[in-house]
Amino acid sequence: MIAARLLLAAMLLPASVAAQNAASAGAAQGPVNPLWHEQKVRNYLPHMTWPEVQDLRTRTDMVIIPIAAMEQHSLHLPIGTDFLNGLERAKLVAQKTDVLVAPILLPGNSPYHMEFAGTITLSSQTIQQVYFEAAQSLMKHGFRRFLLLNSHGGNQVITRYIADRINQETEGIAVELGDAAAPFLTRAPQTGDPTGRVFDRHGGVGETSTSLYMTPNLVNLAAARRAALTMPEHLQKMLPEVVAGDPTATLVFLAEGLKATSTGKHTSTREMSDTGTWGLRDPREATADVGRRETENFVQAAVKFIERWKQLRPMHR
Q1: Is 197 in contact with 214 (CB distance < 8 Å)?
Q2: What is this structure's pTM?
Q3: CA 198, 199, 204: angle at the middle one, nearest 5?
Q4: CA-to-CA dists, residue 227 to 35, 275, 291, angstroms
Q5: Residues near 156 by beta carbon (within 8 Å), at least 6 away in sequence
Q6: Mean pLDDT, range 265-283, rounded to an integer
Q7: What is the pLDDT of residues 72-109, one digit of tens each?
Q8: Is residue 140 within a helix (H) or strand (E), and if so which, with residue range?
Q9: What phi, psi does 70 have (nearest 5°)?
Q10: What is the DSSP string of 65-89?
Q11: pLDDT at position 308, please?
């Protein structure tokens, strides 16, 4: 068993990380937790020792902080989809350029999913304060540049506010990584819909494709089915213009859509979808290859932005 683990580590991981895993496995002569299957990941804070963090700090002052959610993702995707996919994306970036990956919270702001079991939502005030204080902690260790990687639509405004607080109130510098990477994308993210004319958002084909690539063993595609949507009539009438890309229609559609039951807008996920998917496509159309292409597109764009930032501004010593 130990020999098999060492061979797998050597095949999949950078040499330095594989060597560390080999040393750890060799030292573990006693019983091993049967549920533990993680391999040590380079530049991933929860796996690192303090001397490793200190050593990384000699090469970079940058941190990716994923900002995610713990919310229902229909019948076939795990509640941790946003956290897991955002974290894995950050870790992939950190294998290509030196940057620390520091996850802080699993939940985000998800009040409109609360009618589905398992969803956890936090207030915007709590979320921004926790991330702001976490960034201050990392500044104490010499990290100064923060790449906030939002992987949940409901966190968009909160993420930008966190970045602004860091920029306005501390010695740190923060950007939202999705915005920063956008100019470096080589092609539009692919959802698997060749026409681009079908409404496909939360828990739909695009998100399922990403999960099939990122966390395949957590996707239960056999449980997926097309959702029956019951949006308010005025939003239903607006939908063709949203799908066509009309910016005004999209802005006002999303301002009203996916809001907590308590708002009285009748646009919580439970009020609009019988499965939790907010989309008209069948999630079973998803493919891991589409998820891989979209992920690789983002990762290379993020790396290009990070390398350009390093050129523009020397590392803080």
Answers
A1: no
A2: 0.88
A3: 105
A4: 34, 6, 21
A5: 150
A6: 97
A7: 999 999 999 999 999 999 999 999 999 999 999 999 99
A8: helix 124-140
A9: -120, 95
A10: EEE--B--BTTTB-TTHHHHHHHHH
A11: 97
Separation between Cα atoms, residue 249 and residue 236, nearest integer Å: 11
Tokens read off for 301: 């764009």
Strand-pair category, 62-67 with 100-101: parallel
Dihedral Cα 224, 230, 232, 238, nearest 10 deg: 60
Q: How confident is the model at residue 273 (pLDDT cuts 50, 70, 90)?
A: very high
Give the integer Cα–Cα distance in Å for 65 and 223. 32
Q: How confident is the model at residue 317 (pLDDT cuts 50, 70, 90)?
A: confident
Domains delineated in the chain? 38-192+292-312 (3.40.50.10310)
Q: Give mean pLDDT, residues 232-247.
A: 96
Residues 169, 219: Cα–Cα separation, whole Å: 41
Both tokens assigned to 43: 């530049």
The two tokens of residue 111 are 């009040």
Is 169 in contact with 140 (CB distance < 8 Å)? no
Tokens of 3: 């020999």
Q: Are 273 and 257 in contact (CB under 8 A)?
A: no
Report which secondary-structure segment, H or E, holds 277: none
**Distance (Å, rounded) from C-alpha 134 to C-alpha 64?**
12
| Residue 314 confidence (pLDDT) | 87
Average pLDDT over residues 171-182: 98
| Short-list 140, 131, 148, CA closest to 171 | 140
Average pLDDT, the chain: 91
Compute the half-sphere exposure of residue 301: CA atoms within 13 Å on the CB side of its CA: 20
